[in-house]
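Example record for the data management plan.
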Amino acid sequence: MVIHPIQLLMPAEGNIGVKSIDVAPVYSNFSSSGVSFKKLLQNNLNKVNEMQLLSHQESIKFATGESDNLHELMITLEEAKLALQLAVEIRNKILDAYQEILRMQI
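Corresponding structural encoding:
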């Protein structure tokens, strides 16, 4: 069985409409903006909290009859749920990384 390198399978003209993505400006803008990781995390957790509070308020409005738009209520509830799930997963990844650093031998 012969395994050919990927370069031999590609056309001779070069890449077919595939553009290379330069990610260096994204990282340089982030580091030069002066935003710390703590502040970034804090701001996003505040946004998640606001979404949770908004969904709670919308639920109360719907339950008391002030609002009859079930569609908007369900969208608000799902957005809050997904934001919370994302925040929990990010927390889990941060804790895993921290524990991995603690296990490193110096």
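Summary line stored alongside the record: DSSP finds four helices and no strands in the chain.
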